[in-house]
């Protein structure tokens, strides 16, 4: 039985028109939602319209197998000015399909990246203006952000400079657009009689439309008269073809979409930035965290494209703003015609087949079931990292839904992040009127009304210095691509390879072309086709590489036929097919992330096709899709095809360009040069050596406390000498590898043997079974061969050669058995809050005294202040970082050099406390449990930790394995954890996050203690837990309540 849908009382002939405030209709609707519940209806102009305010009902409306976008109400009136543009086209309208397929690539990952420099240009005009007017000048926030966003979309997408920052008045397009949108909204609730007596309003409406069309015509005419070779939106409109039908956009449709993009490309983003500034000013703690993130990630240099994916708190602040104030505050759907009626939503509400249903996003964003009890509070942590990923499906939809979602979302997101990063990097912002209460100005979108603020340059920045900084040293990707294209001289390709892509935005197509270019230099004649072009045409006995994305869980337009064919194809046709799949996706679409690449891989495997390698994947939301793809093809694909491929020859100009990074380039390690600032021993001479080394990082490397520093070492001179002695080589011996050798050592050049042994190969790695088999071939007699076969110890090839002098192994064979030098990573023991250009590590120096010297630790030990090293930053797991919320207690457990990340954690807590203006008591408790041998010989950082403990930053508890009587009988860190179980349980019950860093035995010991605590806690509540249940409970919490960094 149907549940009646509530409705306010109606007035004859007028319906519910009088219930809606014409100046702020959205607020009226939200208030009605509060009164009438998750769904209600209104009668407007003789038609019933339905409104939903709950995330559960919105999730149903987002099902594109049941509902499609509805063009009704104000949006239908907007068609008077923009016709069948992308946002106002009716469902199934042919021109929308042609325009969508033609224009989506302009807003793909590659297209958005290419727009960055022009976007940066406009953003810096805003920053320069605010710097010059000074801190006492009132800033009209929405006006300036409107100038910014209009100029950005015009320049980036259409090559047109409106130069809005150089005029007191707004561009005529803005005034016309505002008038047009206001009137479109008002016409919905106006009766026919009222319309007859408002001819002047109609005249103004048509004048506004004419002004917008005039601006669009001018831009189009200028491009046609002055064509440019640029892959921007305007060229796509003028010259692009629908990849499916081959059609071009009609002149009328070009005009409609030009106006659409000029409106949508700036109106909502300016509102987003304005609301975000308001909420950050009103919430100083969030403002401080956002500014600290910019300081940590960007530092004082220019904001680059590479920074866009490294500002998660800024992203969370923007998401939280759109939850509370979605600038496009509603969208409407209607049941699909082929869905049998009546339509039921929520399991109880019957909706007429021809009804329009409006999702009220401001009300849905305040649904406590989806977003928590504190829905009226601005709390970016709610939308940060895993918290955002765990939101109910489709609860956050400020950019619309599915195929009709906002095509320009990547553009708006990059622009918003860039603008906020520049703003927070250079200014302290405050409200002009501290007592200002948020007022809303509504057209079809919403913005703050009468919101003014002031911006003062941060300490140490002046306007001239700021301008020089913004335009100095701005990096582009040109060098990267030059180096990549310079890596190969194309050999004569002979072996076939098929590269298939599925792509709407152009990103996967770009990756496919990149792969084809690289394949040529490795002897493959690669052809590139869409997936649909391969239906019933998959070749056998040649590699097939598939690169594709998912779009709301569906295949790209040029891959949909292939996917359906693949599901139904005869498995016999797949027996001799060999393939590799690389998938692109975006983390914001959690439920459908990598869905299509996984489906294709699964179908091929189930039908008997043979995988070359495991599926590769990249999150384009992380901004590293090109690096991810490079790593996948270099480290996996080409290695799998190495038996068939030919190594590329090194081009002549590359060495000059790469200079000191040649080794890293040949070894395929993406490292940079850094300088050693300090290097000191931390332990007494009579205990195992632990050291502290500090580096000055290049400005392009950023990190968070808890991340890793990855270092490319050099072999110890003593080990190199052993190799030379074993093979009877002098120190000045030279070698030349001939072209064609499959190796990471440079070919066709004379190299010192000591340089190769020191920098390019691993000398201490344990011999593999393959190595043993090779050595047996050179044994000379059966007895020695049998001895070699019986080796069970983990010995290096060098150690075996030293143990068996009778082995006459040629040096060239020995060299071929060695693996390339690899990087070593160490937990960073500092925080960028102290100085983002400095990072330190702690490590134990490995010297077993049995012919084995740790390669990296002995290399590190040898470094002097001023030495140059090659290193990079590796991100730790997202869960191994400090919680953003200072009210979350933390528990840290470590042993030995496992203390390293926690020194960074505690240092960061100390700085946060000192700079927040709060007391240490305002921060949740922090417990640090440290395991070491002695209280007086290897208690590293003891004085500094004692100082922080005295300041209330952390409580430090020790376990001394050689002096347990000095640590309450606790021998190991896990023993101390159990000893402190009452405190630990109390903190864990209060929501604490735990972190463990040390050896695998520590990880097991902590798990054992945690399991026993679970049993103990259950028993106190009258329940019984088995030990296995305790361990399962602990393992279930991994990644959510605790994080582990285990090493051996």
Report on the structure:
With 1048 residues, this protein is α/β, with parallel strands linked by helices. The protein folds into 4 domains: 94-437 and 444-471, Cytochrome p450 (Orthogonal Bundle), CATH 1.10.630.10; 478-640, Flavodoxin domain (Rossmann fold), CATH 3.40.50.360; 654-824, NADPH-cytochrome p450 Reductase, Chain A, domain 3 (Up-down Bundle); 882-1046, 3-Layer(aba) Sandwich (Rossmann fold), CATH 3.40.50.80. It is built from 39 helices and 31 strands. Strands 13, 14, 15, 16, 17 and 18 form a 6-stranded parallel beta sheet that branches. A 6-stranded antiparallel beta sheet has the order 24-21-26-19-20-25, with helices on one face. It has a 5-stranded mixed beta sheet with strand order 1-2-8-5-3. Helix 10 (199-225) crosses helix 12. In the N-terminal section; belongs to the cytochrome P450 family. Residues 669-883 form the FAD-binding FR-type domain. It is an enzyme of class 1 (oxidoreductase).
Structural class: alpha/beta
Overall tally of domains = 4
Percent of residues in beta strands: 15-25%
Low-pLDDT stretches are 473-491, 645-659
Biggest sheet statistics: 6 strands, parallel
CATH class of the largest domain: Mainly Alpha
CATH architecture annotation of the largest domain: Orthogonal Bundle
Helical content band: 40-55%
Using only C-alpha atoms, the radius of gyration works out to: 32 Å
Organism: Exophiala sideris
Pfam family, one: NAD_binding_1
Protein name: Bifunctional cytochrome P450/NADPH--P450 reductase
EC number: 1.14.14.1, 1.6.2.4
Highlighted features:
1048 residues, alpha/beta, Rossmann fold, 4 domains, 6-stranded parallel β-sheet, 6-stranded antiparallel β-sheet, 16% strand, globular
